[in-house]
From TrEMBL:
Pfam families: Pro_isomerase. Its EC number is 5.2.1.8. InterPro entries: Cyclophilin-like_dom_sf, Cyclophilin-type_PPIase_dom, Cyclophilin_A-like. It comes from Pontibacter diazotrophicus. Signal peptide: none annotated. GO terms for molecular function: peptidyl-prolyl cis-trans isomerase activity. Keywords: Isomerase, Rotamase. Residues 78-246 form the PPIase cyclophilin-type domain. This is peptidylprolyl isomerase. It is an enzyme of class 5 (isomerase). Transmembrane segments: none annotated.
């Protein structure tokens, strides 16, 4: 199920209203992917679907046995290397587990909102099932929605008051420039306080502070932000679906 994210915390996010984590479909065409990596992967196709009842237990056990923290997302535009944070252990374990099973190799970047984010992880052509479960939020004050942040989508607060993450839909922030006045307003609204370093990061890189404390950031782009920018420039339809799909594969790589 493809899921959307949005934030109503600032004006530029209002364009996403009405499509928060909703299930939709889109027309598909075929294309290829590029980019080879030093793969450290389990046999593809071996994925036991999880449930609400066992997801945390399984992911906790998996995290203890799998300490991988680098992945490469390959697309027809090139490769995006991401680092997964070890102190968001459930989200890291979930992403690594799905990657090693080949789940994300059936996915695509299916939603593009310029100056906001690109979202991937699913496809209407998917054959592998991950199960019906969500991941408990792992908000960490050290991790913000700066440009290049990797985070998980989720359903809205009315049906998901605990802000649990999607099992598989992720997004990469592109965002816009941010002023210090805007950051102070977000601090008051979210009852939080940015560090001087985080303020400087937002002022230099930009991002989407309106999503902080609302969605779990569990990694960041370390190489290939230019590829994300190319995906962001894809022509889209009225629902923000790329007119030519951007398939992706994901591999775990060595440090």
């Amino acid at each position: 199920m493809k899921q959307h994210f949005f934030s109503i915390s600032n004006l530029r996010s209002l364009v996403l209203a009405g499509c928060l984590l909703t299930a939709v479909s889109c027309n598909q065409t075929s294309d290829g992917t590029t980019g080879e990596t030093n793969e450290v992967a389990e046999e593809s196709g071996q994925l036991e679907p999880l449930t609400t009842e066992n997801a945390v237990e399984v992911l906790t056990a998996y995290e203890q046995q799998n300490q991988d923290s680098l992945a490469v997302i390959s697309t027809r535009h090139g490769d995006i290397k991401v680092r997964l944070y070890k102190d968001t252990p459930l989200h890291r374990a979930n992403f690594v587990r799905l990657t090693k099973a080949g789940f994300y190799n059936e996915g695509e970047f299916y939603r593009v909102v310029k100056d906001f984010a690109v979202q991937g992880g699913d496809s209407d052509e998917r054959e592998m099932s991950q199960g019906a479960y969500k991941i408990p939020q792992e908000f960490n004050p050290n991790y913000i929605h700066k440009r290049g942040a990797l985070a998980m989508a989720r359903y809205g607060d009315e049906r998901n008051p605990d802000k649990e993450s999607s099992s598989h839909n992720f997004y990469i922030v592109t965002g816009q420039s941010v002023t210090e006045e805007e950051l102070r307003a977000f601090e008051a609204q979210h009852e939080m306080e940015y560090t001087p370093e985080q303020i400087q990061t937002y002022l230099e890189l930009g991002g989407e502070p309106g999503l902080d404390t609302e969605y779990t950031v569990f990694g960041e782009v370390v190489e290939g932000m230019d590829v994300v920018e190319q995906i962001e420039q894809e022509p889209v339809d009225g629902s923000s679906w790329p007119r030519q799909i951007v398939k992706h594969t994901v591999k775990i790589v060595n440090e």
